[in-house]
Amino acid sequence: MQSMIHYGADTGHGHCVPKQFRSWRRAVAPLLAVFLITGSFGTAFAATTSPTGEALSQSHATSIPVALNGKSLTFDVPPIMVNDRVLVPFRAVLESMGANVWWDAKTRTAYAFRDHVSLRIPIDSRVLYRNNMVVPQDVPSMIVRGRTMITVRFVSEALGAIVRWEGARGVSIQAVDGPDSMVSFVSGDGKVPQSTLDSLHQLVFTDHLVSRVADDLGLRLSNPITVYVAQDNAGYSRELQAQGITGADLTNVLADSGGLAVDHSIFLPMSRNTTTNDQLNTITHELTHVLLNDTGAGYSIPSWVNEGLAWREGLNAEYENQPKVLWQGMKFEISNAVEGAYAGGTLVPLISDPSQTLAATQTYNVEWQDYLAVDQLIQKFGMGSVRTYLTDLLSKSPGDAFKAAFGETTDDAMAAFNAALAQAVKQPDQGVQLTFTVSPDCKSDVALLPRSGSMWRVFTLAPGNYTVTIKPDGTIEGLTGGYQATAPGSVDGNDVFLAVLPQSGTMMEGMQVAYAGIAITYGFGQYGYTNSYVSYTNNQTSYANNTSLFGVTLTSVTTPGVTS
Questions:
Q1: What's the pLDDT tens digit per position in 388-439?
Q2: How far is residue 63 from each of residues 91, 152, 168, 170, 385, measured CA to CA in Å?
């Protein structure tokens, strides 16, 4: 089967400050294990050095505590410390985690199998093998007092559990069940701290990222996933080149991507995924590609369907626990960019070949139109039809599976998508409705600036909930009174602003605040949240994605007659 590569090119921009690029994503997480194999393993070594020269802790009488899912484990040979690594017996813990284990005396090799993950662990070796792929370890496995001892960290990550060192409380192992246990994270460039790998793994486990994608798409993961994490762009570049990505393709991926998936592997640059939300989006996005590859669907469906599904899953994961107004704003940004390309005559047709997506040089993110096209399919036919389509690919040709699931061909779907864009760009400005709250401890005035307006309307409001409509002609409904004030500084004439005017002397980040606010952008008959800003008396301005400023919280942005 040919190799399938997916990368991400994210070119979304906000009006006041560019939004971070998003990309195609893939992720993997480690699983943990503690190992004890009983039986004859050869002569026990003295408790001073290993056969390869590592110094062994002699404090066997003071056992290192080990807990699995909060339950203390006991061993006939206690865990030991070797070069600051904890080694544990093999069989007892793995079997407690539901793994099958066995020992090959002739080759002096321990084996384990769990959830489609196989481990081969040669004694006295600084490597183990996960599904026949080499996993380096800095302390070799060894036999101590007749028991095979293995580094708990490396084996646990190979099997997908989460391991923590808790000082005097010893080692805590958190086993992960189901498909989420089939993801592991490794440092691809040797520079990523273990704490970073642990936090990425925790995201997969806590948010059940594999399970949620598999359940949503009706897929089942059969093969383990490895995420190779790079600390910087140089390490990311080396990982991509090792996958055969060179020349113009390498330049394009490095310029635009936040992650890449190749078959069952994911490549993740931390320099482009600095926040938890970025990581959630990228990892879930790339996990979607891997799940599609795992079933074979990723090798046959059109690129626009593949990328559209990955964007859908990634965005859902990123915005699930964020304020609704931010999610609505992101969807507005996507549709506004694609509609702008359509109106400007620069929109390219939906792409079926992944290599064409890689080579795309449009000024907008071509994957955003993939997301919108897939979203239109789901709105029209339901998610059940998507699951049927992906399942039918196992027994039908891609074209027949699409027609059977959606009642139309891919050409029909693309034509319907273009027709919808043609209608969208004709929508008139119907105004915008803002809902916000003023907290009891708020000491700020609230000001509104209509689109293309030059004068603010300033209000002193009591605590409570407010719904305000700003008409296309600048009329403000829902508030009475107030006074007019000249708009400070330059503003984007295509934006509506909800401003907050804190009392004099309000400080933030060591600077005195002049005013703050939220920008709501207009485009093709719709409005959407863009970003927040804080301007200081020293003429500096900072931008963020906040919905609450100095006691005023924006809760919704609604375009009359349009459902988000």
A1: 999 999 899 999 999 999 999 999 999 999 999 999 999 999 999 999 999 9
A2: 18, 15, 11, 9, 56
